[in-house]
């Protein structure tokens, strides 16, 4: 069980990979175009209101965290086109062995099942390759799209954390959803024709994609 970086994970046309220097123009364009779409769900720094980190700072921080084994920050691409990001972090070791998942996706790509696939792909890696014992996601109760994601992944609801995360300029309540390695193990190691296993294989069986390619 080891952390490997840089890391690339694949499920057919869906590829998760590290953020690169040459991604700057596309990344900045995605964030600008999706500002209003993402604003209600983006974490914010209460000490630096209205000042999100720029691309260079974000990439350097992500790379540093990844090389230290503190996070697995990846961009979501489809047919080579960047559409969002997914990050497992912070990663906690020792007696906890826990990872927290967070993500964002381009509005035009939402509702196509990409986020559940990306999350399932990363969760299989965290459990099988990195030996994590627990993966959790926190979701604002108002975020119906993310509630659908955790439902598709069969994450177990654990309750409400009051004022858990500073989001969109204020401390917001979040529902907590989680899965343990024992729960993931009950899914089994069955492989499907698309190459998925465990959580991803179950997602493929229960929610087979009708159209893989983006227009």
Automatic annotation (TrEMBL):
High-level lineage: Bacteria, Bacillati, Actinomycetota, Actinomycetes, Micrococcales
Source organism per UniProt: Brachybacterium rhamnosum
Protein name: GNAT family protein
Domain N-acetyltransferase: 14-182
